[in-house]
Every structure is written in structure tokens, then in C-alpha cells.
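Sequence in, structure out.
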Amino acid sequence: MPLVRLIFSVTCLTSPLSYCLVSAFNLKPNATIHLIGSATRVPSARPQAPLKEVPITQTAMVKTIQAEIDSIHRELLPSLVAFETSLDSPEKPPQESLKQEYTRLGELLLQTLLRLDSFAPEGDWEEARKARKAAVKEVQGLLTRIDTAWKVSQA
């Protein structure tokens, strides 16, 4: 595995923290992040077998795209509904916590879009292309939904 570290304000953004959202680091516009390291592999204590490239099929790609959407429905949609409900609630949570939740949901949905963008169906894989297009539209719709709810609550 390449040895690369991202450094911001004396904080290493990789290692266990690499699973955090970027917003957790309070980056400001025009902040500088340093990339330190090498693209060469770090020697391992034990030899590892080379990874075999597994050919992906259209069916496997469609299943992976569907799993991504199922994950959104299972893990993110309840939070999104709770966020919308809290915006309309007479007993609103503090503005800062609402803003953090808005940012978190937006970032998670954008990460999903990036993962969906990584799928490149072969030219004749019409089913995979349609599944990816539908998934992207759904995630974009959720982004629009939270953006609209946020803007209405701020008006």
C-alpha cells in the first residue's frame, strides 16, 4: 500500500481519520492541504499474493448499483426525513447542529454520486446504463430535496 499522508493544520487526515467526512476538519476556503508520501509500495511483513482482476459483468454492476441505492434507503433516508422534520418542528434544534446535519447529509449524498460515477458500463450494457442513470437521478433528487428544505427554513 502506498505511504501517503494528507496534512492540514498539524492534523493527519489519513489513517483512522480517513473515514471521517471532510467537514469534520473545519476546512476553510483556500485552506492548504499537504500531500506527503510516495506512490511506491511500502514493504509488507509478509508477502501478499497479487490481486487478481475480477472481470465485472453487467449483472454484477447492476447489483452493485442497486446495493448502493438500497444502502441510501436503509441508512441515509431516515436521517434525511428526520432532518426535514426537525426543520419544520416548533422546537427546532440549535441552528449549528442543523447546519452540521445538512452538511453531513449533503456530503454523504455527494460521496454516493462519486461512487456511482465510478461505474462505467460497457457500450452494450443498456441495463447497467439505465440502472446507473436512475440511481444518479434519485441521489440528485435527494440532494435537491435537502437543499430546498434548508433554503426554505432559512428564509
